[in-house]
Amino acid sequence: MTMKTDSAQAGRSGDQTQATVRAYNRASRWYDLQEWLPEKLAMGGWRRRLWARVPEGRLLEIGVGTGRNLSYHREGHSVVAIDISPGMLAKAKAKARKLRLSVDLRLMDAQHMDFPDESFDAAVATFVFCSVPDPVLGLAEVRRVIKPGGKVFLLEHVLSKRQPIRWMMERLNGAARAAAGANINRDTVTNVEAAGFAVLETQNLMGDVVKLIVAQRPD
Predict the structure, then answer these.
(1) Which pLDDT belongs to residue 16?
(2) How many CB atoms lie within 10 A of CB 147?
(3) What mean pLDDT is reported for the chain?
(4) By C-alpha distance, which of 30, 35, 58, 29 is closest to 47?
C-alpha cells in the first residue's frame, strides 16, 4: 500500500511540475510587460534591498525567470541561475547578453537540482517558492547545495494572517494558480523552517503579504 501511495504522490507531483512549466512558458511571452508597472512601483526597490544583503561568493539563484534580478548582481557575485521554464530561461539569456553579464544560466528543476552537496556560498530567490509544486522539497534542495552556515535570501508573497485578507487569498488560490502558476496561500516562513533552515530575519514589505526572509543552513 505504501508503495502505491508513494507512486501516486510522485505522479501528482510530476503532473504539477509539468503544469508549472507550461504556465511559465506561456507567461514568458508577455511576462516583462505584465510586470513592468509593479517593478517600477515597488518590486524593483525590494529586489535592490534584497541583493544589497547578499554576500560575495558563489551564488545560486533559483527561478531566474526572465532575468529580473540580473541587473542587481554585484562585483564579487559569481552566479549560477536556474529556471524550470525554457521560455523564461531564453528571455534571461537574451537579457544577460544585452547586459554583457557573465552568468551561468541552466535549465533545472529546483526540486531536483544537479549540483553536488555544498556547492554554493549562498542562495537567492525572488517570488519563486509560491510556484514550486513542493516548496519544502525545493527548499531542502537549496539547503543541500549551500555550504554549512550559508544563507538563503528570499522575497516571497505569503498567506496573510489578517482577516478578511487571509480568507480571500485562500478562496482565490485555485484561480491564481490556474491563471499564472503561482499560489497565493503559501506559508513560506514555515516552509523554510520545515526544510531545515534557521530563520534569522523576516521583514514585512507590503502589509504581511510580501516578506524579505533571511535564513541560514545550520553548521
Answers:
(1) 86
(2) 16
(3) 92
(4) 35
- Return d(Cα 177, Cα 146) in angstroms, integer: 29
Residue that is written with C-alpha cell 515597488 in the block: 42
Tell the residue number behind the cell numbers 488560490, with chain if given. Answer: 173
* Strand ranges (E), 128-191: 146-157
Task: Say what the pTM is.
Answer: 0.90
Query: Which of 184, 206, 205, 198 is CA-nearest to residue 152?
Result: 198
CB neighbourhood size of 129 (10 A): 29
Architecture (CATH level 2) of domain 14-216: 3-Layer(aba) Sandwich (3.40)
Contact 124, 51 (CB under 8 A): yes
Nearest to 125 by CA among 158, 85, 152: 152
User: What gap in Å lies between CA 217 and CA 195, rounded to an integer?
Assistant: 10
Contact 57, 122 (CB under 8 A): yes
**For residue 10, what is its C-alpha cell?**
510522485
Of 193, 177, 194, 196, nearest to 185 (Cα)? 177
8 Å CB contact between 159 and 187: yes
